[in-house]
């Protein structure tokens, strides 16, 4: 790769680490913000859920703005909004302010680091033959953020209190400004290709089967990312365990993505994806049967972390096999919107169920059922024959086989919810 390709790739990896790590660590602030503001867990969960849904709605708009004015400007403006909205509860703990911060900061993060924005820029800068490697580095940045920022946030809360830690999280957003410089397009660069119509694809049930399965992924992962610290407290374990849990899950993401990459060379992508969802269901079932202990919870974190990042490569490969790669950006944007609808449901329902019942048991039973449902949606006896593609499609397909995002965890304890 040339110097520009390396610069864009490494900057994208750093941005993913910054934003994904920061958002995963936000779950550590849920309990302190609930206590300080009196907003209520269900209401705060609804605000976070609105933010998750907003990410999906914002992705097409963010991509259009990046095409029009350049990704560098979008990232700079997004970072400023992210810093301001994250820091709002430091200035005021009024319930309305805390709720607005939870929703708006989540959406602002998508203008700094989102799959469509960053991967689109990387694939334009990197030669097709090296695209898979480049996006793999971006995915590694995601895991690095989880490993570093999650434990660091827990340390800051324990040492200096939640307000100081939240202010520091907001200040980290400023690091996006120098990183944005890597995305300035060279003079005379060709404009991005016009989007192709996807109306006919949206009429096909096979597309929606894959999209709905990814919505289940969003339900599962968003609940774990936001409500994990509260679950740990309801299990009677030290709240500080949550930071280690986030870091362990982030490290397991790397192993999971590598294992799925190997599996996709020998197995049908639909079968691989179905197995990932079934492993999630089995992991939750084991959690419900085993006694509550720190060791078992850490084992659950590793298992869920390994399966979290593993869903995107086979999901993107299924879309490419069924519909070709020429319209992958648009189609994956729609799939990500469905994912965020699932995230909305997971964050809101998880908080509501815990507050209404005093435990997470109802959530876990629903999660198991949804995982089995998702596995059934994507299981296929044989692969669809790929559609004709352009000569560079192999590189593009490899790009979309790399995984991004992630966090995981929680457990079925029944200690009363603090109101």
Task: Describe the structure in your own words.
- The structure is a single chain.
- This protein has helices spanning 3-25, 30-37, 41-69, 71-91, 95-110, 115-125, 131-160, 162-172, 176-180, 199-202, 205-234, 241-263, 269-289, 294-308, 312-323, 328-357, 361-378, 393-399.
- The protein is built from 18 helices and no strands.
- Helix content is 75%, strand content 0%.
- The longest helix has 30 residues, at 131-160.
- The chain is globular and about 50 Å long.
The percentage helix is over 70%
Oligomer: single chain
Count of helical stretches: 18
Distance between the termini: 54 Å
> Average pLDDT across residues?
77
Largest sheet: none
Strand segment tally: 0
Task: Map the helices and strands.
Blueprint: H1 3-25, H2 30-37, H3 41-69, H4 71-91, H5 95-110, H6 115-125, H7 131-160, H8 162-172, H9 176-180, H10 199-202, H11 205-234, H12 241-263, H13 269-289, H14 294-308, H15 312-323, H16 328-357, H17 361-378, H18 393-399
